[in-house]
Amino acid sequence: MVDKVLTANRLSDGISVWLDAAGNWVESLQDAFVARHAEAVSALESTGKTAFADNKVVDVNVIDIEEVNGVLRPLRLRERIRAEGPTMEYAPGYKGLAGPVHAA
Amino acid sequence: MYRYDEFDHAFVHDRVEQFRDQVERRLSGELAEDAFKPLRLMNGVYLQLHAYMLRVAIPYGTLNARQMRMLAHIARKYDRGYGHFTTRQNIQYNWPKLSDTPDILTELASVEMHAIQTSGNCIRNVTADHFAGAAADEIADPRPYAEILRQWSSVHPEFSFLPRKFKIAVTGAAHDRAAIQVHDIGLHLKKNDQGEIGFAVYVGGGQGRTPMIAKKIRDFLPEEDLLSYTTAIMRVYNLHGRRDNKYKARIKILAHETGAEELARQVDVEFADLKNTELKLPDADIQAITAYFALPAMPERPEGWANLARWKKADENFARWVDQNVKPHSHPDYGMVTISLKPIGGIPGDASDAQMDLVADIAEDYAFDEIRVSHEQNLILPHVALADLEAVYRGLVSSGLATANAGLITDIIACPGLDYCALANARSIPLSQEISTRFGDPARQAEIGELKIKISGCINACGHHHVGHIGLLGVEKKGAELYQITLGGSGDENTSIGEIIGRGFEPEKVTDAIETIVDTYLGLRNDASETFLEAYRRVGPQPFKLALYGSSSAAA
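^ inputs. structure came back:
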């Protein structure tokens, strides 16, 4: 089975988030909980439906990933870009997903 | 330019407060996403890959310095210090918080701007020639008619839930700079033998997954019938446009399946009932709106001619910029300046807050407080005295806004693509940056001449690839990006849809392929005056196929 994580966008600001093992929505894919068997995937899907119904997140999806040397990597380019941000320097001081707080 | 009256102010204010309440109810959980989504879309708020996106309307691409400064302020305060000017003459912000959007809309309303009808199945921002009111070749200014259409279509109860989105463009010159033949309705201002103003009416053009060139269904529509005839078209579409399949819901499909002649007949039936109703435009109303768009008082500035010749002689870069980015104005002492948002290796259409502020300053100091956004993702100063060009140029150079490439190979249109867009299958921006860098040498660009490259990251064609002289369409194939190349498209008065040249190219091979196409053109053109498009129309695709694919081109 392909490893999977649960991702969504936070309702209040739309920022991409992933579900961690403690049930929190976190801003880094690397902190996400990885489902490696069918029961865990079912749990992710169930959590996603609940979180959507609770109006915490929108656009909830289970996505395929692989783990390479301890680094989580989505299989689809679309999800890699969601996890890492735009692939070019889009404004001075901004790269990837780094926001104003982290900007140079 | 048009100024809000009391009704407009109250209308936009009420709409903002209505949306503020909707956002609050959404954030509190009172409104579910399914209920909220159409409401946010009606106010220009999308959800993209990384964040929400807010699309702000710039009616027919016209704005003043105060409005541009507000766009800069919003970029600075609520976003990440930049905005993206679009092919619909609007601006998009890529990182706003949903919770901030009511405040953003309040600030926009303070300068007579909003985001209404920048999304949804309604009549979208009416676009127009970006040189409107200034061009030497203009028959009449299209903006008063675009404004009349804007007022008529805003929250029009009958046309707020159409089968699909609906786009109208108006041009007022023989040379079509508004791409009207790839719009749902294209209006071409003209004069009849009696010197009266009217429109040639085109219907059923569009790009997307099924590109179509609009059909002319009326050769001369008197201006007084603009709203009644447009309403007639909308009624036929609203009644017969398909609602069972969103991919077949645009009026272009209806026009194609019905046939232009029959569609025109159906429109005429509706028009007969509407022609002499309250939709008939009184001349006084047309004049009242037209007065908002009067040319500024432009004094004679004949000293500019001699100064310009001297400055050009002294500065090769300035001379190149004038030759490429300044076009003749209807007043001989003035020019129309294109501010390129396509720096070599940069992101097409993006402008920082500081750049927007600078453009506002220059517009106030040297351009009668007028700015335009072009559908080619550049900014325009429509009225600049030749005598002020050097000062304008120096100001633009200081902020990286003086790239002399308007209409050249590096003046690339690109949609946001997979770097931002939830619909995209492939990236557009990095590809445009690579092509721009490869061809960035000014002498090489000049040698190539007019060549429009347009890039879309998915079949929805926001990057207008179908009408690019060279079009690039990004697709996803086996999990990777692949780019189809089309040749021979054009979005002017001789509109054509580009032809797919053969099998697609991996991202790392696209720029080489473009270079092969360009080199082939340079090798076969009759002389330097024959543009890429003219040469392609003369020789067809085969020489380019052969160059790209060799002997396998027959199977490509």
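The longest strand of chain A covers residues 57-68. Chain A touches chain B at residues 9, 11-16, 52, 54-55, 58-59, 75-78, 81-82, 85-88, 90-94, 97, 99-100, 103 (CB under 8 Å).
thumbs up if we can close this ticket
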